[in-house]
Write a structure and sequence with these properties.
single chain; mainly alpha; Hypothetical protein af1432; 9 helices; binds adenosine-5'-diphosphate; binds nickel (II) ion; HD_domain; HD/PDEase_dom; HD domain-containing protein
Length: 198
């Protein structure tokens, strides 16, 4: 198995799968998470192939995004086998992905899983996180904001985004999260200023 060839193939596969997503889980989300995961792995002394591969593949089989998650995971497994990724490595990739989702609230067992979770959470905050939140909200027919009710994209900042800096697993990610957190706080301040027409 040539690792960089495998990553290239995975990239094409992921591109096809997520090309049309308009909920903030598009191909570029996967690319940012993969690159961030590789970088964090280098800083934390983890297996960077494993972190990057799991970064690319982390949203495959998410119940929000796939009608048949079990089938999606099976197709991914078959594809990795076709690329001659050894069975043990495939199992490591699958294990790293398993507990990544924020909604599940788990801390992954492997360092690479924790790194991918950090990379995924970093992409949920800061300027890009803000863009993804409104994209998701729009795609789901949710209002930007409403003083009277809580199911809005602005509410999502309080439900999730502002809590993420405390949930980072690695020091490298925590440092990046601090800056993005501050950016979101400034953003919200400005948002309310404009909402109340200054
Ligand atoms: P995970 O994929 O880790 O389970 P989510 O799917 O909840 O996490 O979050 C992925 C991204 O989708 C979030 O960062 C956010 O941008 C967006 N998102 C999820 N739920 C909402 C929501 N209720 N309102 C706005 N955006 C949301
Ligand atoms: Ni994700």
């Amino acid at each position: 198995m040539n690792e960089s060839n495998v990553i290239e193939k995975i990239e094409c596969y992921v591109k096809e799968l997520f090309e049309d997503d308009v909920t903030g889980h598009d191909y570029f989300h996967m690319r940012r998470v993969a690159r961030q995961a590789r970088e964090l792995a280098e800083q934390e002394g983890a297996d960077s192939f494993l972190a990057e591969a799991a970064g690319w593949l982390h949203d495959i089989g998410d119940a929000k995004l796939f009608n048949d998650p079990t089938h999606a995971k099976k197709v991914m497994n078959d594809y990795l086998k076709e690329l001659n990724v050894p069975a043990g490595r495939i199992a490591d990739i699958e294990a790293a992905i398993e507990d990544v989702s924020f909604s599940k609230g788990n801390v992954p067992d492997s360092l690479e899983g924790r790194i991918v979770q950090d990379a995924d959470r970093l992409d949920a905050i800061g300027a890009i996180g803000i863009a993804r939140t409104f994209a998701f909200g729009g795609a789901k027919g949710q209002l930007i904001y409403d003083e009277q009710q809580g199911r809005t994209s602005i509410q999502h900042f309080y439900d999730k985004l502002l809590k993420l800096k405390e949930k980072m697993n690695t020091n490298a990610a925590r440092e990046i999260a601090l800056e993005r957190h501050e950016f979101m706080e400034n953003y919200l301040r400005q948002f309310y200023r404009e909402w109340h027409t200054e």
